[in-house]
Amino acid sequence: xxxxxxxxxxxxxxxxxxxxxxxxxxxxxxxxxxxxxxxxxxxxxxxxxxxxxxxxxxxxxxxxxxxxxxxxxxxxxxxxxxxxxxxxxxxxxxxxxxxxxxxxxxxxxxxxxxxxxxxxxxxxxxxxxxxxxxxxxxxxxxxxxxxxxxxxxxxxxxxxxxxxxxxxxxxxxxxxxxxxxxxxxxxxxxxxxxxxxxxxxxxxxxxxxxxxxxxxxxxx
Length: 220
Known about the structure:
The radius of gyration is 20 Å and the shape is elongated. The protein has helices at residues 3-7, 9-43, 53-68, 71-77, 79-86, 92-116, 120-128, 133-164, 175-184, 189-217. Helix 2 (9-43) runs antiparallel to helix 3 (53-68). It starts with a helix and ends with a helix. It has 10 helices and no strands. The relative contact order is 0.15.
């Protein structure tokens, strides 16, 4: 192991842990809230089983506004809200708030797109068999779209890692923040390069796992 990595080993592990916390909370928010929001966007569209123009318009507007916000500005904009629910606007825990919100908006749109790829005949078959809305969602839509949902989550996770590098603005820490503070600002280019390599390896690993799982569960 290079000497500079040995010198900063403890700090590097802390920064990796902070990145995992931020990205982990983002994934949780994406699955718990982004998946239902994306499903509602699909079901409330014109011609779908829960067609509701008002609900679709509201959800669609909220998702579009959140996704169109430059992430750094979103972080600053949400500082009062973060302080209200966390008690502070600084630190890794505080950083999870804007990350979770962008995660919900990001993944919900990918969920909607994945469900739109489900053949129309699947919905028609489900309705003709008298399936309830719950059965349509869990026994038909999610089953048919499972490969796309996994790929969408994989893409989202990679985006969350990228977003997490910005969280040094609110003291969120993480690998990106470590690379800037210890590598760039202290003119230790070698250390910064090693951090970039760690990020690249992490992203490649996530992409490989996501693609592999997607292929395994794709029965079409």
